[in-house]
## 1
Amino acid sequence: MKEIKNIDEILKMLKKELINYRAPVLSGQKWEKIKKTPFTTLISCILSLRTKDNVTDKASIKLFEKYDTPQKLAEVKIKDIELLIYPVGFYHTKAKRIKEISQTLLDKHNGKVPNDFNELLKLKGVGRKTANIVMIYGFNKKNFLPVDTHCNRIPNRLGWIKTKTPEETEQQLKKILPQKYWYDFNNLFVQFGQTICLPVSPFCSKCPINNFCKKKGVKTNR
Ligand code: SF4
């Protein structure tokens, strides 16, 4: 297998640097307050779409402190779910989705989240990224690689791959990124993309892996 050059060094540098950027208060720490199950992982991922980490974390904690199973959430009124998850982005649609998914799990999966990637994709509102996140972080299956917009953009800028969609990126990265890094990859690159390698005008001057980056497609940087 052709591997990414200097990958051990690059990921070590990124991890070290990103400790300084860890968002304050609750970000990424919700699992210290709520029980991590495939269901809470799934719902939390739905809450996180187009929403800042600390907002997602607070909403997840508020929601799961009261209702943390499909059985409980299928009984709750959409309005009550909305009140608990506000102000996450698209809270009205997400509240509806959460209730629908809970009911589908009860009707078709014995009240459990299916431990199967393709079955997860059949749930309304669940795409490849969410299904990958549930498999790797909810079920602890090591051979899944969630790719979002940051995980798609940054490896392309670095020159590791040349792809257009997250799906293509997932397939290409699986061929060149050693599997031992798949578990950390999403968290690391999302954080990196939110703080240094921003979508527009990234902070290349303070980027710890500048020397390893081909800056493909980067028109302006700081
Ligand atoms: S050098 Fe710039 S474009 Fe490359 S990874 Fe760092 S911030 Fe992103």
## 2
Amino acid sequence: MCEHNWLHTTYSRVCSTCGVEIKQLHVDTYNRFSAPILRGYNRCARFKLKVDKLLCFHSGPQFKDKIWNLLKQQQHIMSCPKDIRSVLRTLNTKNKHYDCCRIFSRTFTDFRVSLKYNVHDLRTKLVSKFEDIFMSWCSSPYDHFFSYDFLLREFLTDLESDLLVFCKPTTCKRRYLKYITMLTRVQHDCKTLNQTTASIHSPNVLWHANSPPRPIRLDGVQILRALASDPSHNVVLSEE
Ligand SMILES: [Zn+2]
């Protein structure tokens, strides 16, 4: 008789010894406004929500959220995303909705940007970039994940998108170096894995692996240079 060694998924528990699985649905007690069944933490969903707010597929905070009135009172001093962020910082409200910077800009200022891509294509590109990084990170040695703001900024920079202006700028150089080192390592490992897989798999996979690698904007030498300018950073470099 198996004594069961349970592993928990978001909807069941599975015995790692005998494989028996028992459905188990939990109620979400964290947020009383959410759907009653616990959906667990979903990184891809969280990133997509950020993208939807940036691309204005999302309509922003609820109409009764006090942030709308607070921003309206300051409308006369806002003309660009930077002004919006400055005002948000001063507001006496718990949730500042920084992710809604573009929605607020469109509502309270005349500031607009021109987009190089169709928004639907851009959404697909951003989500796909995130999923690639997320999948690579899952098999990486890192136990902490990237900052979502960092990844969004990196992706928009790669795509040379003017939407970058709506993102929170980098404030901590040390944290930036930590994430860029992680990203370089994760992308490098992913590329190596693709090449190894391609040599033993079907022509289909071979084609995928031979497609141009995603650009790595900061290589190991550049990171070393950045570190040299401030050697107090404790950053582990990947082996190139
Ligand atoms: Zn068992």
